[in-house]
Amino acid sequence: MSEQLPEAFAARQISVRRPSRRGLALGAAASAVMALAVVLAALLLARAPQSKATAPLPLDVGRVPNATVTATLAVSATASVMPTGTADVTATTTLTPTAEVSPSATLAPEPSPSPSPSGATTYVPYAARGADLALPGGRVWGLQFAWDDFPVEHRKAVALELKRPATLGLGSVRTMLHWRQIEPQNTDPAGYDWSKADELLGDYSRHYDVLVSIVDYPAWATVYKCGYDFQPGMEVEWRQFIRALTERYSRPPYRIAGWEISNEVDIKTTIDDLDRKRPPEWGGGEPTVPVGGCFGDRPEAYLRFLKSAREEIKAVAPRSIVTLGGLAYVSTIPGFHPEFLDRFLALGGGELIDVMNLHWFPDIPTEAAGITKFAAMRASLAAHGKADLPIWITETYRLTQNADPDSPRRQMLFLTRDLVQILAIPQVQRVYWYGWVDFPAAFKAQPTDPDRGLVTAAYEAKPALKVLPLTITQTDGRPEDLSTDRYTLLRFQAPRAAEVHYVAWSKTGRSERILLPVRGERQARAQLFPWAAVKEPGGPLPAPVRIGADGEQHVIDVGTESIFLTVR
Fold first, then answer.
1. Helix, strand, or coil (residue 473)
2. What is the mean pLDDT of the chain?
3. Average pLDDT over residues 227-253
4. Which residues lie below 8 Å from residue 351, measured CB to CB, with a gap of 6+?
5. Domain carrying residue 77
6. What SS3 state is found at 445?
């Protein structure tokens, strides 16, 4: 969660930590560029060769007792592990001929395959699409550098880590801008201090689009730094600030993906003894820390903040995306209001947001499984006529901990299985890992606190980082759930793509057989993730297994750990 939690929460297995402090449409020239791009695209499509069509077969018509997997082992396509502690890291691939193996080879749950590094997502050049971003057509992966409000940590991340996520297929960064930092005293926009915001958004916009969460309100403007309500007459000052913010950053060179109004707005509004013990700069004597949003049982007050901000943003940049401050959506820990979403939607809040925005923390042992939590959230949206609202997961992670040697493996499994289930929800458009780099030791409440990053505080890649590019590629495209009571089978296909991707695993605890229809080139490959290879520092994953066709189908036996399957 992106705020320091009171000590009472830490006792319930959530680590205490300090908070992370912290367009303009183009004119005629851009329109001409867009028009030219459309014409060129049409010409290219007209000249493109048409792929051979094949009639699809039904999936899994039952077990085929005598069928076997015909496979050739891809000896190549081993992805080199990313160097650590460097500013510019690029994965490389070497392709060599394949070697034939026995035609009766059977794919087993314990294998030896390997990643073809994912190609990075292609983003339309920023100048060609304008500074205002319409809702994205495909999934975008993002990250947050959790300590970017501290200049030394931000500059270290920029020097050592800023480029690596882009080489892996990530296209966005989430950050926080602090009203109290920009306008500590009530003044007009000419007196605002934009220095830190300019640096943050400028650095990130060189490589990514940026999701901005507006947090930490000045005492002269709001009841608490976390919000709660306006001081008398201060809504007009909020509007002035939001308009100035939008005018400044909704144009090149900045690339704003969207505006979040506050953060985790379902946090409590009451004050307890633990709140009073926090230092003033961390929100002492207030319901939560300054980067949280204390509106949990006051959705009416939050709607005033959101409506005012939306009106000012849309007046300046009508195509900008506006969303609520990502819900923690926690139901089993005191201090959060799980009913906030339904109350917010009942008040008409769904009309004020362009996307649904929530956080998902699978390490809270008392919380429901992710698929159950997302089903509840989607049911609330559907009950208020917002079933098709796009969903952005703006914070998620899987913890690692030195005291728990199995935790790095669980982080890998999260990327290859648990998160994949959520990505099979068609409305999920964006996913942000919080935080990308482990918290520096100086900012931990205790040395034994778990770490959230895919990269260590020393900027070394964790094992799970090897599989992230594969997960990004494998889950790209329109999802379809083809699961049965015996196995999970999730299909992803991007428009006009030559390949179809599947993710599969057994539900029964034993090997289960899956039949996949062949496609034009009658080729398939399977990528597995044996932990012995994943955890090896500096070593590649094993190469994917090539699977031949048995008639008009590919036959694959899957175990309890996920397999990535690609059919071409």
1. helix
2. 81
3. 98
4. none
5. 70-120+480-567
6. coil
